[in-house]
Amino acid sequence: MLRDRLGIEAVLDGCSPQGQCGCCTVLVDDAPRVACVTPARRVAGRQVTTAAGLSAAEQQRWSEAFLACGATQCGFCTPGIVCRFVGHERRGADLSDRSTVDKALAAHLCRCTGWQTIREAAAHATAPPPAGAAERHPIAAASPVTAAPSAAAAASPVTAAPPADATDRDPEAAARRASIETGGPQHSVPASVLGGFDFGADGAPPGTLTAITGPTGDWHTAESLTEARRQAGKVQGRRTTLEPTPPIQIPEPPPSTTWDVQLATCWTEPGYLETDAAWCAPGGNPSDPLANGGAFGGKTESPVREEARQLADEFSQPVRVLWSREDTVRRGPKRPPLAAGLQTDGTGIIHIARTPGAAEALQAVLPKAEIVEVEVPGPPTSMNLRAAVWAEAQLLAAALHRLQTGDPLETTTSTVEVTSPEGATARATVTPAGIDVHIDAGDPLDQVTLRSYAIGATHMAWSWVTSESLTVDANGEIQDLTIRSFGIARSADTPHIEITINPSQHPPVQAGNAVFAAVAAATWLSQGAPPRLPTGQSSALR
Question: Would you call 217 helix, strand, or coil by DSSP?
Answer without folding.
Answer: coil
